[in-house]
Amino acid sequence: MQIHLTDRQQHILWATVRHYIATAEPVGSKALLEEYKLSVSPATVRNAMNVLEKAGLLYQPHTSAGRVPSDSGYRIYVDQLISPDGTLARQVEQLLQDKLNKENWSFEALLQGAAQILATLSGYITLITMPQTRTTQLRHLQLVQMEPGQVMLIVVMDNYETQSVLMELPIPIDVPKPDAEIIDRELQILSNFLNSQLRGRSLLELAALDWTQIDREFQSYGEFLKNLFAEVSRRSQPAACTQILIRGVAEVLRQPEFSELQQIKTLIHLLEEEQDQLWPLIFESPEVEGIGESQAGRLCHKNQQGKRVTVRIGAENPLEPIRTCTLISATYRQGTVPVGSVGVLGPTRMVYENAIAVVEAAADYLSEALS
């Protein structure tokens, strides 16, 4: 459900979030008036806060307390009320260039150094995935008709590993069912075309291709082929690539949100023992990045330059140990292919404009270094 706020309600939500991020204390109308010099009456502020509470954007932790932002309140704050700090982003990228030696260091050493710098700068847990090292390339593919309406894609890589996917052939309802021999001929023509266009590409590149650029005569197969290669790429993801470099745990555990021992234990266990569960949230493969706005738009923050990061706030995180946290991540790339990701993990009471800028700048730096 979309929530429409007036300019005044947006400003009071912004002020409430800013105050709570800075103090970790519930805020009342009097504090907002004094701190942000709001040129309205206390009753106006209270009414606006009541509206925000009824909309689920603020809540009272105790009956006599002020208000604090909910996950939904943070979501509107991130999506509508702030922009990443561009000056900080440039400073971070310059600092990474000054402190790290991308000419003489190994890429793993760069990642280690970048993780430590980001943890120190942000005050949050920094998570950087090791890059995908799978570089096998497509040697040959063949589309084969199986049962009526079913097609199997067979892919042979340059190391002679074979992958196959069986899918339904997309035939419009209002078109008469074509003859099997005609389909065989079309699939052979399509196989030849795809081999000429795709031979020598990695699976990650295939999944990230813009299939709308396929030759006009094959446009009707575009979505079908994208799904086929996305499935092949998904099945071929190596299990060993789930290593995540983690820095900054000690700093973030000083935050009041992590005062309970059991909460700390479950978070540490996730970071140390269950990286395979955490890894897909940080590094989203190309087929996940390409899903529709209706599924992923609420998780993505786009700044004025059109760059994109993923922001998962509180309950948007599917893993229980981090459902009171915010996870911000951005992919770094080799050329146009996403090969790894940079992220920060901290309390939902996070300085979002700074964290987004830091993550984005680090991803840009690592992309440049890897290229």
UniProtKB/TrEMBL annotation:
Keyword entries, A-Z: Repressor, Stress response, Transcription, Transcription regulation
Task: Determine if Transcription is one of this entry's keywords.
Answer: yes
- GO BP term, example: negative regulation of DNA-templated transcription
Regarding protein family, the annotation reads: Belongs to the HrcA family.
Q: Which Gene3D superfamilies match?
A: 3.30.450.40, Heat-inducible transcription repressor hrca homolog, domain 3, Winged helix-like DNA-binding domain superfamily/Winged helix DNA-binding domain
Q: Name one GO molecular function term.
A: DNA binding
Q: Which Pfam families match?
A: HrcA (PF01628)
Q: Which domain of life is it from?
A: Bacteria
Can you say what this protein is called? Heat-inducible transcription repressor HrcA
Annotated Heat-inducible transcription repressor HrcA C-terminal domain ranges read 108-356
Q: What function is annotated for this protein?
A: Negative regulator of class I heat shock genes (grpE-dnaK-dnaJ and groELS operons). Prevents heat-shock induction of these operons.
Keyword Transcription included in the entry's annotation: yes
- Native source species: Aerosakkonema funiforme FACHB-1375
What SUPFAM superfamilies does the record point to?
Answer: GAF domain-like (SSF55781), Winged helix' DNA-binding domain (SSF46785)
Q: Which PANTHER family match?
A: HEAT-INDUCIBLE TRANSCRIPTION REPRESSOR HRCA
